[in-house]
Amino acid sequence: MSHLPLSLWLSITALGSVGVMIPLGLATGAWLGIGYPRRYAFGWLALLGAGCGLVFLSKIAFIGWGVGLRGWDFTGISGHAMVATAVLPVALFVALLPARGAIRASGVAFGIVAGVVVGVSRVVLHAHSVSEVVAGCALGAAVAVAFARLAWRAEPGRIAPAPVAASLAVVAITLHGVPVPTQQWITQIALGLSGHERPFVRARWKAGHHDAPMQRTEIPAPQSTAA
């Protein structure tokens, strides 16, 4: 697959960004709240939040303290892989809820495959290692399957599949390519929590440099002298 054009891989990885997937996940939750018992919307948002929380904690741990698995080149769960593999299957599942079980299952399977392709794009673009993408895809698929099991017997709501699918497609298309500096935000939070001036970086960490970044130091204010 790596022989595909770079522009295509960039487009695929942009689809799986937090700036697209999180609004898509929220829109999916909104449709669940409108057309079905609200426990399904709350369940979906709780599962997605838990998955995002694990990604966040794994990244904070490495950037702030250098916690990772050097033998596996693992510095944190891939956020792109996790959110894409969680949100895309559930968005399709919700759009297909009024359909037969086999069709819903096909939607979930297709969404997971699409999420895995997003994960592959992160490896091709050298943004993540294989272990980080595998972890992200596994976590995202677990979130999606857990929700599908939770809502499998939901009675068809009063929302037809067409408007649900159309609105979710509009969200994905409209936000595709819109940059969101999530890595910058996570780095700032990690440095604030750890007290380090510089983040841990994969290259030095892989080379076995164990020296921690510089600690933040408070510069004393100059003392005024009386005339």
From TrEMBL:
<keyword id="KW-0812">Transmembrane</keyword>
<feature type="transmembrane region" description="Helical">
    <location>
        <begin position="133"/>
        <end position="152"/>
    </location>
</feature>
<feature type="domain" description="Phosphatidic acid phosphatase type 2/haloperoxidase">
    <location>
        <begin position="72"/>
        <end position="153"/>
    </location>
</feature>
<protein>
    <submittedName>
        <fullName>PA-phosphatase like phosphoesterase</fullName>
    </submittedName>
</protein>
<feature type="region of interest" description="Disordered">
    <location>
        <begin position="207"/>
        <end position="227"/>
    </location>
</feature>
<feature type="transmembrane region" description="Helical">
    <location>
        <begin position="44"/>
        <end position="65"/>
    </location>
</feature>
<feature type="transmembrane region" description="Helical">
    <location>
        <begin position="108"/>
        <end position="127"/>
    </location>
</feature>
<dbReference type="Pfam" id="PF01569">
    <property type="entry name" value="PAP2"/>
</dbReference>
<keyword id="KW-0472">Membrane</keyword>
<keyword id="KW-1133">Transmembrane helix</keyword>
<feature type="transmembrane region" description="Helical">
    <location>
        <begin position="6"/>
        <end position="32"/>
    </location>
</feature>
<dbReference type="InterPro" id="IPR000326">
    <property type="entry name" value="PAP2/HPO"/>
</dbReference>
<dbReference type="InterPro" id="IPR036938">
    <property type="entry name" value="PAP2/HPO_sf"/>
</dbReference>
<feature type="transmembrane region" description="Helical">
    <location>
        <begin position="77"/>
        <end position="96"/>
    </location>
</feature>
